[in-house]
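[audit] Reproducing an earlier prediction to check determinism. Same input, same settings, fresh worker. If the tokens differ from the archived copy the diff job will pick it up downstream; this log only records the rerun itself.
[audit] input (348 residues):
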Amino acid sequence: MRELTPDNTADYLRETGAIPPAARASVRELAGGVSNVVLRVDVEGGGSFVVKQCRERLRVAVEWRARLDRIWAERAALGVLNDLLPPGASPAVLFEDRAEYLFAMTCAPDDSETWKARLMRGEADPGVAARLGTLLATIHADAPAHPALGSTLADASLFEELRVDPYYRTTAAAHPDLAPRFAALIEDMKNLPVDRRTLVLGDFSPKNILAHAEGLVLLDFECAHAGDPAFDLGFFLSHLALKRIHGVLGPDGTTWRALTEGFLTAYQDRLGDRLGPPSELVPRAIEHAAACVLARVDGKSPVEYLDERGRAVARRSALALFAARPPTWGGMIETLEEMARSDRQRPC
């Protein structure tokens, strides 16, 4: 495989006919990629686009490798999102090169930034959270009928490599008393009835959501597969909970609660009972939220922003959710708020 860099990408594009032979182009690497190289190409007089190429070794502190062909799962997921979501809510794929494990896609608007960056500055808009709830529910509700779920996205092995092993099995090894709970989560995802399965993005998180003046763009779903929507819900909610613990969503929890409730209300209003009654989905999702909070402290890919105290609070919060097993979203919120209140009463 020819590994692309800002120095050789323009030559590659000319050689393959992606841009005219005499075209002048500037290339720069975009920040934030953990498992891929993402390059923005600006062609003089010809617009801009993004080239994304897979890398075998992920950029984390521990040794972590994954198959190069995971990029085709992301390519397939983008095709589904392009079909289901409003124009601009996900990038459009322009071309692909199977031999080089890459594809090109449209650029997000120039004023885009990750929703994570906004949240970390304390800019938390419940309206954004509600729009995300509607988008995720639209995907979960409408994707089961898409043909890609029966072909490329039927394979969940990349989800095993990129989520189940580094998040759940690694964390279970660090918490042997919870190993049966993690094992049950894994088995439940494998054995979920076909009529409850949908497109699971596997990385629906603030860092993969671009916000701009006109809306939102969803990105980066290389472990997408046909599976349990409860994982997407738990994964997303864990990110909000971790930022609450970090303290960027307000000291009293009001902002975090507004974000969480806005997201969940919009999600449930759009989804309805398309994937079964909420009384089945919600407890599974809460269990995944607990597992993901703990995994982002003691798994292979810990969040970078929590200090030692924050990590301790995250552990206690996850353990409290595991112990309480709340059956409703309100119960989950109250459990996490109780942990936040008790942390404020602890001596520094």
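[audit] rerun output stored. Observation attached for the diff report: Residues 59-63 have pLDDT under 50 and may be disordered.
[audit] end
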